[in-house]
Amino acid sequence: MNEMKNIFDAEKNKLPVLLENLELPEVQTPAHQRHLRESLLASSYFKEGAVQLSTRQKIGRFIAPGFTLMKPKAWRLVVSLAVLFLALGAYRAFFVAPQAVASLTLQVNPGITMTISARNKVLDAEALDAPGEALLTRLDVAGKEVPEVLRLMAGALREAGLLAPERRIVVALYAIEEGLRPAERLTPPELSALTENVRQSLLGYMLEQGLPVEVKVAEVTAELDYVARAIGLLPIDYVDYVAEAGYPLAKEVLKLQKELGIDPALFKEQLGTIRAALVDIRKAGIESQIDALAILKVALAADPKLQKLTTITAAMMDLAEKGLSKETALAKIQAAIKTDPTLQNFDDLLELPEKEADEATENGTPPPEAPQRDTPRPVTPEADAPLKEADDAENGAPPPDTPPDKPEESADDD
After folding, report:
1. Cα dihedral 158, 160, 166, 167 sign
2. 215 lies in the same domain as 237
3. Which positions ≥6 away from 117 have C-beta within 8 Å?
4. Is there a domain that residue 39 lies in?
């Protein structure tokens, strides 16, 4: 009898040690899985304010009633069930949360992305780099109001000496749509209100501390953020470009990296050159965003190493200044590139057609127009629609009529 009691006591004493040393699988959320996490957080299945028992309480409720009655052989089952409860607790602690409606990325030197609830509280935060990880280890941000979290982060950055005048804070926000029904999503006015709240919180802190640091807050979209991150671009890399080119055109230009198979690191490094080339194209009289994108695509396809991109766009400007239509100029550039893919004799090849055009003009015969079938179509008609709307807006045309929203189906119909 004493021997059985000793065995029971020995097994009983092992349980706390086993539980204390228990290693659970760590939940990893790298950047490329962030959109999946947002969808899970946004799922209407997860309700806000749910009260969860702690893992220790769950284990205690299971073990306590029959603790003294268990036989030694039952301990393995208890430990297995304890592991199950612990894993369940870790799962629910991570996923049971208020609905996510917005994503906010803050960058100075550390980069941090936060998921925001409908009540403007931070659900979780993810570091984008090592300095961001170091910052998050010092701050408890989950469950706090967005303005409070921003001030905490700004304070930590100031203490670390990262808010020097030559630096700037860049914040990008977008509304989460995936996993949410239309009625649950942030409306444009609500997103604008959140954006202004973020701007005023940071500007107010800088004013209080007497810090002459530029604060740039921009609204983007989940699609633009996804396309940019696939290239390795973070908001601090592209917010100025989006403000300069406009969202539809900026997004389509970034998508050319994947479509044309350009090295992502090279595309990121040369984004400034690509921006300058696009500006030159628009200055050459190509006002349509669709046409500007078509010309840029020809140039990028001809020069995937981005060594003579400005040469190609400069040639386009020269041809436009000589009075050639955009179709003729684009066709001549395509023909020159096709004749000499190395682009070593690019300028010489363009000179020959120009001489022929001058001779034809002197004889009173206009140069023949190039067939438009050779003009590339870089995007689908569906993708053209936002660019066309942007072109119409620039030209002062009224926006297209928006069909009335369909009445939302009630939950009873499901």
Report:
1. negative
2. no
3. 48, 97, 98, 99, 100, 101, 123
4. no
Same domain, residue pair 269 and 387: yes
pTM: 0.60
Q: Locate tokens 């396309």: which residue? A: 227
For residue 408, pLDDT beyond 80: no
> Could you tell me the two tokens for 286?
């190509």
| Residue 191 tokens, joined | 């997103």
412 inside domain: no
* Pairwise pLDDT comparison (20 vs 119), residue with the higher score: 119
67-81, 106-120, 187-201: least confident range: 67-81
In this structure, are 175 and 107 located in the same domain? yes
Instruction: Look up residue 400 and give its two tokens.
Output: 């297209």
Host domain of residue 124: 98-219
pLDDT above 60 (res 398): no
Mean pLDDT over the full length of the chain: 73
Residue 41 maps to a domain = no
What's the pLDDT score for residue 96?
Answer: 44
Q: Put residue 29 in one of left, alpha, beta given phi > 0 → left and psi -120 to 50 → alpha.
A: beta
Domain count, the chain: 3
Which residue type, as a one-letter code, is found at position 300? L
Residues 197 and 327 in one domain: no
Instruction: Dump pLDDT digits (tens) for 53-84.
Output: 444 444 444 444 444 444 554 444 444 444 54
Is residue 271 located within the same domain as residue 347? Answer: yes
Residues 6+ positions from 10 with CB-CB distance below 8 Å = none
Mean pLDDT (whole number) for 85-96: 40
Q: Widest CA span of the chain, in angstroms? A: 121
**Class of residue 265 by CB neighbours under 10 A (exposed 0-12, middle 13-18, buried 19+):** exposed
Question: Is the separation of the CB atoms in 83 and 25 below 8 Å?
Answer: no
C-alpha distances in Å from residue 400, one per residue of 152, 247, 249, 287: 44, 18, 19, 20
Region 157-182: what's the mean pLDDT? 89
